[in-house]
Design a protein that fits this description.
This protein is mainly alpha-helical and 156 residues long. It folds into two domains: 7-36, no CATH class; 39-155, no CATH class. The chain has helices spanning 16-34, 39-60, 62-66, 81-100, 105-128, 134-155. The protein is elongated, with a radius of gyration of 24 Å.
């Protein structure tokens, strides 16, 4: 027909019109995402909220965390596992809160990163001796990545 533009599909079966519409949709999506919050801020808030909530949970339910202290490690902890976890709650609440309000962020992220690195070393040793903490190891690797990201972003 006269005046009608005919397009043949490319090797993937896409027509030029479909590719153009997809490109326009991609551009609109990228423009919306670009107006979103700063990724470093989102990372800091996520880390701060996680540490704050973990600290609060250690204060109200230390027994839920006490299971992470395995038998061979109990003599190394000068208090009971429940008390040890309960004592870890306030510092975590403090550091998590500081991260949330963006105060002493480099120091807070350093504390979290060092703590998580130590925790991962301990959980790795515990796993080698038969304790099954794989889910905690996976979780803490992700949190360590967040902490290092926040540390680097805050030090710039």
């Amino acid at each position: 027909m006269a005046g009608e533009r005919r397009t043949e599909p490319d090797s993937r079966g896409w027509t030029a019109g479909a590719i153009g519409r997809l490109g326009a949709a991609r551009a609109r999506y990228r423009a919306r995402v670009a107006r979103g919050p700063d990724p470093a801020t989102v990372t800091r808030l996520a880390l701060g909220a996680t540490i704050l909530l973990a600290g609060l949970h250690k204060l109200v339910a230390p027994g839920a965390w006490a299971g992470y202290i395995v038998g061979w490690a109990e003599p190394l902890v000068v208090v009971s596992p429940r008390t040890f976890m309960w004592l870890n709650g306030p510092p975590e609440v403090l550091v998590g809160g500081l991260l949330l309000v963006d105060r002493y962020t480099t120091l807070g992220a350093t504390v979290v990163a060092v703590s998580l690195a130590g925790t991962l070393a301990y959980l790795g040793l515990a796993a080698l001796t038969g304790a099954a903490f794989v889910t905690a190891i996976v979780r803490d690797v992700g949190l360590l990545g967040l902490a290092v990201s926040v540390l680097v972003a805050s030090a710039r």
